[in-house]
Amino acid sequence: MTKRQFFLCLFAVLGMILGLSTAIACTGGALSAKDGGTVVGRTLEFGVPLDSNLVVWPAGSSFQGTTATGRDGLAYQSKYGFIGMSAADMFDQIVDGMNEKGLNVGLFYFPGYAEYAEPTPENLAKGLSPGQVSTWILANFATVEEVKQNIDRIVALPVVIDILKAVPDVHFKVQDASGKAIVIEPVDGQLKVYDNPVRVLTNAPGFEFHLTNLNTYLDISPGYPQSRTIGDLKLVPFGMGAGAVGLPGDFTPPSRFVRMAFFTQHEPEQPDTTAATATLFHLLNNFDVPVGSAQPPAGTAEVTSDYTTWTAVSDLKKLQFHWKTFGHQTVRVVDLHQALKTAGHKMIHMSAGPQAQTDVSHSVPTQIK
After folding, report:
1. pTM of the model
2. Which of 26, 37, 197, 351 could form a disulfide with 273 if both were Cys (CB 3.0 to 4.6 A apart)?
């Protein structure tokens, strides 16, 4: 084990022992269906309303990377149209989205571990702010293999954003319509790519730690454990859920990673992506962070408890983007083809829905007939 790997493990253990909160507790996973399709989804947690917009960018849109000195980074035009959730009114920073080739990208918080490149006169022309990396991927590529081959064309630079008053520490989960997934992390100033066989991502520490940590939970099964006898005492399972005893239930990133991996690996295969989408929402409900249960650490941009502001699921076969927000629990869906037709040749956006802690999701009036 290298010195860096040792400290990554040490910090992760200390974080779990001390119960340290992270500023964004996002959890992502995926399911495949018998019809050959894949759906991918995630939650978004934040200690202040992110006020995400649903943004539609058509093919041919022009983008300019932001650096610490202004709009002087990478300039490019999008090859593909895409839809996604923005970071507030920063419409060129997509937190989670899907393009017309069925490629999904999710941005996840990576506090204390992101190591961006130092700005230099030589790398500014390739520069993007952290939140623009996901947008660049959606705009230009159809598969994870294409992303792997081209990731060295950009440089992620440290850029302060207004909503945090700080540089956001982030990493990325990328998944295509075939079901393949990768994770991209800024390490030592480079964007390092990892294959993601479990198709799960949460937050810190690094992705390699999370895969290694799964070895701790090899004996957890959804099936009932066997009864045992100690002398004259017969020990039997209490009841439903006995098979998952030992599955970690707290909100730390390592625990959420293990839970999502367990849920997705043991979920029965879905007949089609419609069923898989509904099922993935059920799984993601297990990662809702209730208001008041995860207080932010002192000295951060957050002033209130973390909570689940929105949840999104992308159907990479039907090209449908589904979402719900804290204040609107009814799942809504937008067809990407229709959205791009409506957009025409310009970007369009709309509020994703109420996302503040004070927003109340209303029940739908129904009459018995």
Report:
1. 0.91
2. 37
